[in-house]
Amino acid sequence: MSLDKGQLLETEQMFRDAGEQWPVIIPEEEIRQAAPAGIPHVRWFGVEGDYNVLVMDLLGPSVEDLFNFCSRKLSLKTILMLADQMVTAFDLMHTVIAFR
């Protein structure tokens, strides 16, 4: 792939078969472009060979990584804060998809 534009960024790349009947990657890219802080910025989206490609910022450790870091124990406050953020993210996704 030739996507280098001279920037060194930590990114996550997602490849999906371009021939998929329901390409999941396209609405996901639209959601991420419309999303507030906490949702990775989309650097590039397009077709490369036989694949749809999505390149986005890698924000840091996953929730599971943080859970393991905390000896697999989270306080009630932490769980409720995570739940609030997840509900907000799902609400955003449904809002963006509804206006498609």
TrEMBL record:
InterPro entries: CK1_Ser-Thr_kinase, Kinase-like_dom_sf
Gene3D superfamilies referenced in this protein's UniProt entry, alphabetically: Transferase(Phosphotransferase) domain 1
Superkingdom classification of source: Eukaryota
Family: Belongs to the protein kinase superfamily. CK1 Ser/Thr protein kinase family. Casein kinase I subfamily.
Protein name: Protein kinase domain-containing protein
